[in-house]
């Protein structure tokens, strides 16, 4: 009798849920997120109690422990850690720099070491400066104009581009490859204008590379705040003979073991078809990484919780993956994709949130025309929530390795106008994240996951 009654109740719940319209399900998802969300509380702990989470750091280790425990508390079907070896770079004592206009006459400027840079000599570096906007100018000046000097890359982000990630992409090569290019012409160091659309005093860090330059020939690289980049440029126009001094104490240590954190709701009908939502658990060390990418981490965690709270039993297996080491290596993403391939796992859909916790506007997709047409048909469902951006384009660094010919890979696209005010800087902190905007992002991600799980991925 009891078994029969239980079966009947389950049947009624199942029938009731499946009888709901998509509009009703989405409304429940958004209502639950905005009135009973967990993302903001999780982010509070991740940011305030743990703080920055650079790969290999104590903060990263504590974040792994914390998020694993929180996922286990959701009573998911599976929660586990995936080991991955990650680089360990440490900043050391705070950097110091000044412009010298004459012996004893100096102006202090704000800099920070770029992630992966070598240190300066123990007494620092002081030399004349040559300002360039791009690598072509560097080549034109050649060895005669650059040898023994500090190269100052001063190409601003393009302010008239509405898509600020396009502006970022248009100038980030000077940060990433600047040291490599300057070394060819005998430069002794590089200073790079921060990737920031506004003028302020905060230097923004970020990854850089030396490619295959031998360790003994690597030159230090630092970012300078946009305000100080303007000052330095103006002073150079007045006097080409001014000098820049800076000292930084960073160091590359041996790789250490860390983990991707993974939780799963196993699919009721197609358990071997996997859908992933994720963000990266690591962050740079100047702030606490709330927008980049604490927001994406907690939103992705909340997707699984919101599905459960809304009474949705997914047909396909849905995983949250908190990737380690996106910022300076992408090793977590590569490890996850590599093991998925080895196991023959069929990943039909992957969604990443790594563009900040601002108001969601929509998604970008890497998919076939057939799948994109299906997405466009869902636009009216999102209209009540002011979600309108559905475009083909770049998705996310951590989910990109999962892309194949038949699946769909997507990225959440929040409003990006203020994102680069905080990106990789000391003001990427919890107080910069709006609770409602964060929760709207979690709900929007959950809605898209629900629809792809219900209707599937088109194979043609």
Automatic annotation (TrEMBL):
Transmembrane segments: none annotated. It is found in: Endoplasmic reticulum; Golgi apparatus; Lysosome; Secreted. Keywords: Carboxypeptidase, Endoplasmic reticulum, Glycoprotein, Golgi apparatus, Hydrolase, Lysosome, Metal-binding, Metalloprotease, Protease, Secreted, Signal, Zinc, Zymogen. Residues 1-19 form the signal peptide. SUPFAM superfamilies: PA domain (SSF52025), Zn-dependent exopeptidases (SSF53187). InterPro entries: CPQ, PA_dom_sf, Peptidase_M28. Residues 260-446 form the Peptidase M28 domain. Its main location: endoplasmic reticulum. It comes from the Bacteria. PANTHER family: CARBOXYPEPTIDASE Q, PROTEASE FAMILY M28 PLASMA GLUTAMATE CARBOXYPEPTIDASE-RELATED. Homodimer. The monomeric form is inactive while the homodimer is active. This is Carboxypeptidase Q. It comes from Mariniflexile gromovii.
């Amino acid at each position: 009798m009891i078994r029969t009654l239980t079966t009947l109740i389950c049947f009624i719940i199942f029938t009731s849920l499946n009888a709901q319209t998509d509009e009703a399900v989405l409304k429940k998802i958004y209502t639950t997120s905005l009135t009973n969300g967990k993302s903001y509380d999780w982010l509070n702990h991740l940011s305030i109690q743990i703080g920055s989470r650079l790969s290999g750091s104590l903060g990263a280790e504590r974040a792994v422990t914390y998020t694993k425990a929180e996922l286990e508390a959701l009573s998911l079907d599976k929660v586990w850690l995936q080991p991955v070896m990650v680089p360990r770079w440490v900043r050391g004592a705070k950097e110091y720099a000044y412009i010298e206009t004459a012996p004893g006459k100096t102006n202090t400027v704000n800099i920070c070491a770029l992630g992966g840079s070598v240190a300066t000599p123990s007494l620092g570096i002081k030399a004349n400066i040559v300002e360039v906007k791009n690598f072509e100018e560097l080549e034109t000046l050649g060895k005669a104009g650059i040898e023994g000097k500090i190269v100052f890359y001063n190409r601003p982000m393009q302010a008239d581009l509405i898509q600020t990630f396009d502006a970022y992409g248009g100038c980030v090569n000077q940060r990433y490859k600047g040291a490599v290019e300057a070394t060819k012409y005998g430069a002794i160091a590089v200073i790079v204008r921060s990737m920031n659309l506004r003028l302020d005093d905060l230097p923004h860090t970020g990854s850089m590379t030396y490619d295959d330059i031998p360790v003994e020939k690597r030159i230090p690289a630092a970012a300078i705040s946009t305000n100080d980049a303007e000052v330095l440029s103006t002073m150079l126009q007045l006097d080409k003979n001014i000098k820049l001094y800076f000292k930084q104490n960073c160091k590359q240590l041996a790789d250490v073991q860390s983990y991707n954190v993974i939780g799963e709701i196993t699919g009721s009908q197609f358990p071997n078809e996997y859908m992933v939502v994720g963000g990266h658990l690591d962050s740079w060390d100047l702030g606490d990484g709330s927008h980049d990418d604490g927001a994406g981490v907690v939103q992705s965690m909340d997707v699984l919780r919101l599905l459960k709270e809304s009474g949705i039993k997914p047909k396909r297996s849905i995983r949250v993956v908190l990737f380690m080491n996106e910022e300076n290596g992408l090793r977590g993403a590569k490890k996850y994709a590599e093991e998925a391939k080895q196991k023959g796992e069929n990943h039909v859909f992957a969604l990443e949130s790594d563009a900040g916790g601002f108001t969601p506007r929509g998604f970008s997709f890497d998919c076939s025309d057939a799948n994109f047409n299906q997405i466009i048909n869902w636009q009216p469902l999102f209209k009540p929530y002011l979600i309108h951006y559905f475009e083909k384009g770049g998705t996310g660094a951590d989910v990109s390795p999962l892309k194949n010919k038949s699946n769909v890979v997507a990225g959440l696209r929040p409003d990006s106008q203020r994102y680069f005010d905080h990106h990789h800087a000391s003001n990427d902190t919890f107080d910069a994240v709006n609770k409602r905007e964060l929760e709207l992002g979690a709900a929007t991600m959950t809605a898209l996951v629900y629809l792809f799980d219900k209707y599937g991925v088109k194979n043609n």
